[in-house]
Amino acid sequence: MAKNKVLIAGLAMTLTAGAVLAAYQRLVQPKYMSDVVEGNLIADYYSSGMDHDVLFVGDCECYENFSPVTLWRNYGISSAIRGSAQQLIWQSYYLLEDTLRYEKPKVVVFNVLSMKYGEPQNEAYNRMSIEGMRWSSSKIGNIRASMTDEESALSYVFPVLRYHSRWSELTSDDLKYYFGAEPNFFSGYYLRADVKPAQKVPNPTPLTDYAFSDTCWDYLGRMMQLCAENNIQLVLIKAPSLYPFWYDEWDRQITDYAEKYHLPYVNFLNDDKLEATGIDFETDTYDGGLHLNVYGAEKLADWFGGYLKDRYDLQDRSQEPVLQAEWNDICARYDAEIERQLKNLEQYGNVKGEA
Amino acid sequence: MLFTDSLFIFGLILLFFVYFLIPQKFRWMLLLAASIAFYAYSGWTNLLYIGATAATTFFVTKRIEKMAAAAKDAVSAHKSEWSRDEKKAFKEAEKKKRRRWLILLLVFNFGMLAVIKYGAFTMNNLNGIIGWFGERGTLPVPNFLLPMGISFYLFQTMGYAIDVYREKYPCEKNFARLALFVSFFPQLIQGPISRYDDLAKGLYAGNGFDAERVQLGVQRILWGYFKKVALADRILPAVTLLISDPEQYQGMYALLGMLYYTLQLYADFTGGIDITIGIGQVLGIPVTENFQRPFFSKNITEYWRRWHITLGTWFKDYLFYPVSVAQPMLKLSKWSREKLGKNIGKYLPVYVSTIAVWFVTGLWHGAAWNFIVWGLLNAVIILISERCTPLYNKFHKKCAWSNSRPYDGFMAIRTTLMMGCLRMFDCYRDVPLTFKMFGTMFTMWNVQIFTDGSLMKLKLTAADYGVLIAGTLILFTASMLGRKGSVRKRVWERSRVLSCCLTVVLLLTVLIFGAYGIGYDSSQFIYNQF
Fold it and tell me: What is the CATH number of domain A34-348?
């Protein structure tokens, strides 16, 4: 065979295999539309206008407890949440770094619950935090920091290596959303309109060691430095979730750290904050105190919006046409989603509308 | 490092590119560097063992060859002076000296293997024997980590040394080149046990790029990966489950375990060998075939001519024949003819040699009684089968239908099942337990497990069964088609485009249907443990 023919044949084989694999990869990658919808949270950000004054970074206590729509409606604050399930502190750091490539918010709010995890935890959560990110050095950093022992970096570059065997679990969603997911979040907020009062909150188990790991402190320091370099105010918060339990020993460490570096720290679990926000765990949670529902998230956002506006000179931008157009769309979808969920609750007894 | 590690796969692709880009004379050096790196990855200390084998073999074979040459020179120099008997005596004496060197080499290397691989087994058994006499066994039990592939490279290298001693070919004068022969990386995991005269030429030739060879080699590699990751690793969880809880999984479960393990072992071992041969083919290095459709064998003797061929021929050439013609064996033959009659005297040495070879074959597989019993049972079946040959011949002569294709199929299935039963020793790794589990296949008739959904509770889903059944059918079809010669070659000869499509399909099949990544336990090759 002539050299050229060999080259062409080799190239054709590689391209054909590559094309088929790429098409197959798209098919088997989870679409996160019906189940575990949180898997689409991170990618959702890139479809926004990327013009936010407040950025929330953190885990489910962020993306389920604060309603950006309320911040917009009540204060004209454009905000976004970059959060994913059990988002670890380094994932928050790299997501912040990634966000700063596109915009510079005035305030970054970080929920400190993830300080409890000093090591990579769970591959499924890693995937949800990382796979939605656009490729950048931040994504690579996130992969390197997050991988558990059983994971391989290569499978983040070629997800087909991870999902290759999903062919036996494909559903109609995989075909329906082959070319992309439908937006089902509201500036990074995951909306739930159902109510499940907090009745049986598990008792906290005493720990042998309450000290946060060096890794977590390191990333908190890096986050602080990144914000300082970009002239952004970092605000530490502990969202009002009753469990996982937030120990006093943990709270003291964060309080001391915040004092040392002159950072504001708001613990919404404190009685005065609960009273000020008006959170009622009988009506404002959808899963017995783990996360707030939309009513709780709106209450929290309403109080927090006032807190931020007073302290950090955030302007009411509700009259800016570009933002107005974007938020009008988000608000309309938000209202429609509440209506849909309430309808489903009434008809089926659950928000998903499952018979 | 596993063949399935991404590091290995990327390293291999890189090696292929670099191999064909560098000048021909440096190619074997690249292979040596790759082999050292590959071996060092399994532990730097392991390099000491393989290095010791290469160094001692290099030194001794050179010495033996030098001695042989000197002896020949001496005979030619005294051609006219020495009588025939004198020449013979001189040659014998010289040969004895060379034999001493060879024995020294064999003792050193096999001694190393004995201590590392069999030290703990021996000491444990000695402690057990001491215990019989009421004493508490207190002999120290060594605990060595078995260097990767030691049973394979050592046998290959000792075969080379014996061949040099037998003056089959001249020894290798360049230490680095010999080191490459000893350590050629694709063979280190699980063989095959190549012969120097088969392997060396291709190893040092540095053959250039050849489209057909590379294409067929890549296809062979992918075929190997298909067997390993789509079949062997997919069925592994079920096999592990079935053998890990013998109390629960008895009767038909034991039968299932036996059948599953048969498929796993076949796909695992032949898959690994396919990858090895494929790598060799891409590089232009012909590696000896180790299998020839073993499950098409009509009896166990034939099976062992088709399964792990290189180990069988090694034992035949370097153990069976030398033992059969050794002085003690000849004396035994003479004695038995005189004392036990002509008939027994004729067969006794053969039986002793056969049993000895199978005892060692069992030991080669592992330092445990289950392997020894497995080896001896193979010997017993083979010997009985040999003795019954006249009866079989009579039967085939009398019953014409027994010479038909269906009967051949029946014999192949019978052989496969028989080998599967013997392999149960390999599964349970405990002699009494193996016999017990074998017995439950006949005493516990829990056939309902095939219909009541129990099969789905063996860590295999319907999709897994689908892949396994389809994969087994593909293996069977490929074996059938392979009887007329290489399928890949025939496809290539028919159409280059079709051949390219086959490569792409194989690649996609491995990537899509392979059991790898999270959720799967990509296991070490089974034969790498031996």
Answer: 3.40.50.1110
